[in-house]
Amino acid sequence: MTSPSSPKPRVAIIMGSDSDFPVMRQAADALSSLDIAFELKVVSAHRTPQEMAQFAEGARSRGIQVIIAGAGGAAHLPGMVAAHTPLPVIGVPVPIGYKQGEDALWSIVQMPKGVPVATVAIGGAYNAGLLAAQICGFGGAECDQALGDKLQQLKAEMREASLAKVVSYPENS
What we know:
Rossmann fold
């Protein structure tokens, strides 16, 4: 998302493969809706481990405050990135294969002591974007108000959708 005229990104959204983009795009959508600058990149724990380590180790010096890492299957990316950075890492289990993300979820939430990774729901990249905004504490009344308004809007939409649901049971004849 960044360009020469864009502000310096404060959130990094990374994924193990470009096939994860349809899910991880939701994190970008959440951050964009709040006018929060981010960078978006494919970084593989398996195919490019040295580059992944360099990315994680250099993120803080680039001004990144939170890393959102999405991966499916073995889903080593969030944990490996967390092992190489002091920054908060949010793991997004990407639904792929016959387990549809359950394997990725277990891989991400079972991190050893000292390597914390916050984890959202399977495919929950939008919430990862909102959580990143909250973690960064983007500061300033205007940004804080925008985030608060967005969260209230989402809650109101969920409430309306729930109240609109009607469940009926045919009467016994």
